[in-house]
Amino acid sequence: MANVALRHVSKRFGRVEAVRDLTLAINNGEFVVLLGPSGAGKTTTLRTVSGLERPDAGAILIDGRDVTQEAPGTRDIAFVFQQYSLYPHLSVYDNLAFPLRSPARRIPEPIIRKRVEETAELLHITSKLGNRATRLSGGEMQRVAIGRALVRDPAIHLMDEPLSSLDAKLRAELRLELKRIQVELGATILYVTHDQVEAMTMASRIGVIKDGELLQLGTPREIYENPNSRYVAGRLGSPQINFLPASLVPEIAAPAGTETVGIRTEHLRIAAANGGGIVGRVHRVEHLGDQNHVYLEYRGETLVTLADAHQPLQAGQDVELKLVQPLYFDAAGRRIAAALH
Amino acid sequence: MAQIRVENLHKSFDQFAAVHDSNFTVENGSFFALLGPSGCGKTTTLRMIAGLELPTDGRILLDGEDVTFRRAAARDIAFVFQLFALYPHMNVEQNIGFPLKCQGMPRREIRERVRETARLLRIEELLSSKTSKLSGGDRQRVALGRAMVRRPKAFLMDEPLGALDAEFRQLMCGELRDLHDRIAATTIYVTHDQIEAMSMADRIAVMNAGRIEQIGTPQEIYDRPASMFVADFIGSPPMNFLRFEAALEPGSRAVQVGSASVAVPEIREARPAGPLVLGVRPEHIRFSDVGAVRGRVFGAEYLGTTQIVTLETEPGRVKARFPSSLRVEVGEIVGLAFRSDRLALFDAQTGSAIETESQGSLGHG
Q: What ipTM describes this predicted complex?
């Protein structure tokens, strides 16, 4: 456990600037998630922290110590990869014990046993300790891989999409478990993913990253409710936030310079058309069980909103639209604060 | 376009019954989904309809005509495997026209048919484009165009969006359903993804271990699942199952779950004492100081509009969906109230739904 800081880190591969002047401080006990599409520079950032990649510029600090030039082995980090890489010839117990048995550490075997057993209990794999690593289900293997990181108490855990190879149900279960374990251990984690649900549900803070740049850093709630750009607004939320050219909704008193208006699906309310206001037409209704997704046509644009599963709505029907808490963006996609009334 | 009818369809591979006595009708122009986990028999069913697999027993009717043993090529059905596999060295026009070229159709006629298809798909301006330059949505349209150009009676699709990430898949679902609405082609769509099936299909058949567990509209299947399997497979998070033991009397309106009495829709059948399950959807739970079921908050997952709160209760772990404005502390003890008119009861041994006022009597497959 430690404070970890990246200061103005840049890394390029040939012509590609993978990471651009990235500054980020991860506090002791924090779970920071870097969220971005593939190619955004998430993994490269992680690799510069681990020492697998050396930045072209900038510094990595662990508890105030500059480790930029240090080899991975001396940085006191643990790395969990996307594909669980276990030793197939070893038992689950020996896989978990492996990082502790490093000759550099010289930890007595009884202490190793205690750590392995504690970790196995945390991950609910105690009954599998005697199994060969290959005789496990995918979810169990990934738990062992995570356990192999947790068995030590490194300065920071670096995790690169560790849940992405699992099926949806297991992923949901492990999300919850990983968060519980992190809180219980007070572990410091830097985690990268392209999955917004993982980021929102587990992170203490999310860093939204695109083209090597950190666009916004904040708690999930801050990022969702108060995005600083059109891109970030579109990154979180499912279905995605609606964007409308400001010129199509003159009824809204948008601040000067507004090019685009963003309305979250839950902030687009519909009511029976009654001769006035902003009128859209129902294009399609998707029944998802707990709620409906309603696709609306409004002046050539498609909008999505949520409706109660049993609200009667027909394709072709006109409805009045109410835009609650709109977000405003300028031509460059930057957020403009709403005018105070 | 055509109606597809499957009667008592059965397929065995040696001792293993891959498809067991399936019956369903896909009406002309409708979108039908076969939904289930891998190995449930959905792809085998589709392959029998396509003519790629012969049934052990039963009949397949295309517009009333028995095609059970007709060769695939003579069935006039388009089978779409992967909507994104296009010939990279051909442009859009050549890709769409390829199936006709293989049939030896004269070039002028091919040109006409391709143009007509492109008009329907609204991709006329892309005809001379390279496929590598296309967006995902356009690639999907081209792939569909290639299937449509032969003017088949029906489309069969086997997990066409399986390779895509979640957000893009959602977008493509919308596109695909829009296209369906425009061309009204009878479609059978195989998937293991409940959201794909729910968002696109007019009706869904949920399959498990070779059997159809339930057929219905997405909302029927969600609101009144015929079995625990269906209840668990549909919805995210899925329905919560609270296990308890009791005898049931017709006309009673409450069940005793552990130490709590829970109001349920009026029960319509008698049951001797035995293991039962109370099914509760996450959105039908709320906090209530007087709630009979007590739970301890295990974790809360923020999702923007809503949050999923996991609670530990006497009958097991429960997930509830709340507005994200509700403050929840890990470790706090809360009372839970359920929306009684939306609860389901199941027989724990067979997994099938117990008849209640809201459940009605359900046809099983």
A: 0.81
